[in-house]
Amino acid sequence: MGDYRRLATTIDDAAGEAFDKAAKLLGLAYPGGPAIEQLATRGNPSAVPLPRPLVGSGEPHFSFAGLKSAVQRAVASGDFAHEDIAASFQQAVIDCLVDRARLALRGSEAPTLVVAGGVAANETIRLSLADLARQEGRRFSVPPAWLCTDNAAMIGWAGVERFAMGERDSLDVPARARWPLDGRAEKVRGAGVKA
Known about the structure:
By secondary structure, the chain is mostly helical. It has helices at residues 15-25, 32-40, 65-77, 82-106, 123-135, 145-148, 151-164; strands at residues 112-114, 139-141. The protein is built from 7 helices and 2 strands; from the N terminus they run ααααβαβαα. The protein has a two-stranded parallel ribbon with strand order 1-2. The two termini are 21 Å apart.
């Protein structure tokens, strides 16, 4: 608990940010993940040609800003149904997540692929990453979807685990908007304050 090694990060927008921005472009509610996932069920995931940033590269990091820009162009063109844009966007994100996770798994001896955070609440993403873990001979672990969508619950649970281990912090710990899990990790090109 608390001993992490960062294998990769985002060099611009994270997947959750991309979902929120794509949803806004499509006129959907915030948070964007559930709205996109619901609309995507009625669309064709191959209808809109969208990029898969960094897929196939040896670089382990994520990049979703270009995908968001491609969604913006697809919406502005008026050539595609919103359902098809949502489905194609979701599939592009899945392709990126699966490709990057596969790269990480092949470079690691970790027995389990653990997925958490808001994007892990998306059932289609969960199923795709579970399938990847099975293909790579790894276990798959993901919290219940309702825990993935509540950042306060995730932080609270981490606190419960640390408290159970006897860890305590004074109340004068400063608040930080971005607090890296691996303080030893090197900065990543283009990531700025995010990494």
